[in-house]
Amino acid sequence: MSYFVFRMKNDSELKSRVLYAILSQNPSYAVKEYKEEPDPADNNYHIISVTAFEKGPYRLIRKILAEFIKNNEITCLNGPSSDLLQ
Questions:
Q1: What pLDDT was estimated at residue 16?
Q2: Is the pLDDT of residue 82 over 60?
């Protein structure tokens, strides 16, 4: 199981793209839990936490999240962003 926490701007288009990317069915991982809450420090952002079971060595969910981080669309809160590609 892997646990990811990230912060993203309260933007409905961005939120739709991120959620579609990580919650769409994929044979290499399964999302077990998804949680969203407003950022207590700034109401313009949301904190998203995802628990996923990664099947096999591909770690596709990490690559998906890393792409959003690389484009400065989300910020990883539970460790260095570079850890997502390991």
A1: 92
A2: no
According to the 3-state scheme, what is the secondary structure of the chain? CEEEEEEEECCHHHHHHHHHHHHCCECCEEEEEEEEEECCCCCCEEEEEEEEEECCCCCHHHHHHHHHHHCCCEEECCCCHHHHHC
Spatial CA neighbour of 37 closest among 80, 77, 86, 82: 77
Sequence-distant (≥ 6) Cβ neighbours of residue 57 within 8 angstroms: none
Structure tokens that stand for 72 in this block: 């400065």
Overall pTM surpassing 0.85 (yes/no): no
pLDDT bin (cut points 50, 70, 90) of residue 22 is confident
What is the identity of the amino acid at 6? F
Tokens 């990230």 identify what position? 6
